[in-house]
Amino acid sequence: MNGRITISDLLEAKRNGRTIAAVSCYDYTTARQVSQAGADMIIVGDSAAQLVFGFDSTLPATMEIMVALTAAVRRGAPNVYLVADMPFLSYQIGVGEAIRNAGRFLVEAGAQMVKIEATGAHLDTIRAVSDAGIAVMAHIGIRPQRISAVGRLRAEATTAEVAMQLIDLAGQMGDAGAGALLIEGAAAEVAQVITKRTDLPVISCGSGPACDGQVLVAPDILGLTEGKLPKFSKAYGDLGPRSVESFRAYTDEVKARRFPDDEHSYHMKPGELQRLTELLGRQS
Ligand code: KIV
Predict the structure, then answer these.
(1) Which fold, 7-237?
(2) Is 206's C-beta closer than 6 angstroms to any atom of ligand 1?
(3) Staple partner for 157: which of 61, 123, 149, 166, CB 3.0–4.6 Å?
(4) For ligand 1, atom 4, which residue shows the shortest CA distance?
């Protein structure tokens, strides 16, 4: 694809059965690499609260943080389809506030779509934000912003009754004006039914192979995440240990005074050292 990827490209990808590759990342340098690697979409996820800021949930992500990260990602990846995650309390308080916050991502950060973790209670919000001309990705299935209410995040739609509820919810999101769906941590069979039933692009985060696209968070892909990854995630690199090795090599050289060496130091212009010595001599 030439130029910036748009929603039309994603819809065409769905129609032609071309899978959409998406990455959740949070900074300029990583965004450049994701774009160079040929990904179609970047979602600047509120998982930044955990993976950039070290909190134990996504709840502390704020609008200021998310707008700044999204703008940085846009600068690194001018042509990918860019989705910004609406953080906790940026859309729950009122529809007006949701529209204003969603609009900030488009105007101040260059996002093309906002993602809202949605229950049936958010249908009015999805409708109002999309009626305001802002494309919305409805995030259903596991919704990490619900951690306070549910206590623990676990796979969704693993029973027929809950599967029916998720399938209905997906339909309602489309009817309310969502432009795309993201299904997190749901049974693959159920994600497949939803994907088949809708014309919207459906991105899976841990919801099996049948969706129109896949997303994982960049630190998992790169092997930077410490500890066991969730069942659905996969490390494609081992940058964690390799980064520690690089920092260790640097630290050792600094401590041993081997860095910086002559090659990594600036020097005065010819003759200037002698002049400086004279000037210093006159001072004493
Ligand atoms: O916060 C996040 O990284 C997400 C991903 C599922 C895209 O929501």
Answers:
(1) TIM Barrel (3.20.20)
(2) no
(3) 166
(4) 45
pTM confidence score: 0.95
State in Å: Cα 2 to ligand 1 middle: 26
**Measured from the CA of 22, which atom of ligand 1 is nearest?**
7
Indicate where the chain has its CATH 3.20.20.60 domain(s): 7-237
* Beta-strand pair 20-24/213-217: parallel
* Contact call for residues 206 and 232 (beta carbons, < 8 A): yes
pLDDT tens per residue across span 95-152: 999 999 999 999 999 999 999 999 999 999 999 999 999 999 999 999 999 999 888 8
